[in-house]
């Protein structure tokens, strides 16, 4: 993957700078019941990681986007003990092992379907015995019910220096492949002059509850639990919690 570059990161931080309090509270309460140390995989620019750290938790972060991690580091200046690593979930080879690894907001679904078993095996390898993996996933039930397979959306947001970022998103759903393909066109304007642009292509794969349970079981996890989160970030989401045996 080669997405979430600088212009996308700038836009993302403007519209999703910080997780909602309900989401932060959900993960803070959950993590306090699970073994340390903690790792947020696919942490992005720290939308969730930073408020969790500010609540008193020590959490390391890993993400494959250097732009996202640069943004996260900039905002974590008061918490220099927080380790951030640039790596993908599929190929990371970290020196530390963790009691709990979590991936929020369906970010795991950005991994190609063929690579998901590899990613799950690698996440398992980075857990200590008895460690726990927490995955938040979602299914686009509303679009599946309505039959909507193509969508085009436009967004714009002002920057702190008076410029404007415009985003045009074209989404195409493949129901049989359980996949949504996004083409995201970014353009930054200074008045009428376009000063930066970029195009990113995202592939988002969805998995049904029992499908995820089977994938986790095949990856060697036990004590698999599925619950519905109380926070409202992602509609139709569910949380898988699975343990590595002793």
Q: What does this protein structure show overall?
A:
The chain is α/β, with parallel strands linked by helices. A 7-stranded mixed β-sheet has the order 3-2-1-4-5-11-10, sandwiched between helices. Strands 6-7-8-9 form a 4-stranded antiparallel β-sheet, covered by helices on one side. Helix 3 links the parallel strand 1 and strand 2. The protein is globular, with a radius of gyration of 18 Å. The relative contact order is 0.16.
What's a quick, concise take on this entry?
This protein has two domains: 6-140 and 207-243, 3-Layer(aba) Sandwich (Rossmann fold); 141-204.
Give a quick set of tags describing it:
7-stranded mixed beta sheet, 246 residues, 4-stranded antiparallel beta sheet, Rossmann fold, 2 domains, 36% strand, alpha/beta
Helix content: 25-40%
- Name the strands of the widest sheet in spatial order: 3-2-1-4-5-11-10
Separation of termini? 33 Å
Total of helices? 7
The third-level CATH topology of the largest domain is: Rossmann fold
Shape: globular
Largest sheet: 7 strands, mixed
Note the run of SSEs as H and E.
Answer: HHEHEHEEHEHEEEEHEE
Question: How many runs of DSSP E, i.e. beta strands?
Answer: 11
Please tell me the CATH architecture of the largest domain by its name.
3-Layer(aba) Sandwich
CATH class of the largest domain: Alpha Beta
What do the pLDDT scores average to? 93
Q: What proportion of the residues form beta strands (DSSP E)?
A: 35-45%
How many structural domains in the coordinates? 2
Low-confidence region ranges = none
What structural class results from the helix and strand content? alpha/beta
Overall radius of gyration: 18 Å
Kindly report the oligomeric state of this protein.
Answer: single chain
Under CATH, the homologous superfamily of the largest domain reads Vaccinia Virus protein VP39
């Amino acid at each position: 993957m080669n997405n979430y570059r600088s212009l996308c990161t700038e836009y993302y931080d403007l519209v999703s700078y910080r997780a909602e309090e309900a989401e932060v509270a959900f993960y803070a309460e959950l993590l306090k019941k699970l073994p340390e140390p903690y790792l947020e995989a696919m942490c992005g620019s720290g939308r969730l990681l930073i408020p969790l750290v500010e609540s008193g938790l020590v959490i390391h972060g890993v993400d494959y986007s250097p732009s996202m991690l640069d943004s996260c580091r900039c905002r974590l200046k008061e918490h220099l003990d927080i380790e951030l690593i640039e790596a993908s979930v599929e190929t990371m080879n970290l020196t530390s092992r963790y009691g709990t690894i979590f991936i929020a907001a369906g970010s795991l679904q950005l991994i190609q379907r063929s690579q998901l078993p590899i990613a799950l095996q690698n996440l398992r390898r980075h857990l200590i015995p008895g460690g726990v993996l927490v995955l938040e996933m979602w299914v686009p039930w509303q679009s599946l019910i309505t039959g909507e397979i193509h969508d085009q959306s436009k967004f714009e947001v002002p920057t702190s220096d008076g410029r404007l970022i415009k985003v045009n998103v074209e989404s195409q759903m493949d129901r049989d492949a359980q996949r949504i393909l996004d083409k995201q066109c970014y353009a930054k304007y200074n008045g009428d002059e376009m000063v930066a642009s970029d195009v990113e292509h995202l592939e988002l794969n969805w998995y049904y509850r029992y499908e995820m349970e089977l994938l986790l079981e095949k990856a060697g996890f036990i004590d698999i639990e599925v619950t519905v989160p109380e926070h409202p970030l992602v509609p139709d989401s569910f949380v898988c919690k699975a343990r590595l045996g002793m």
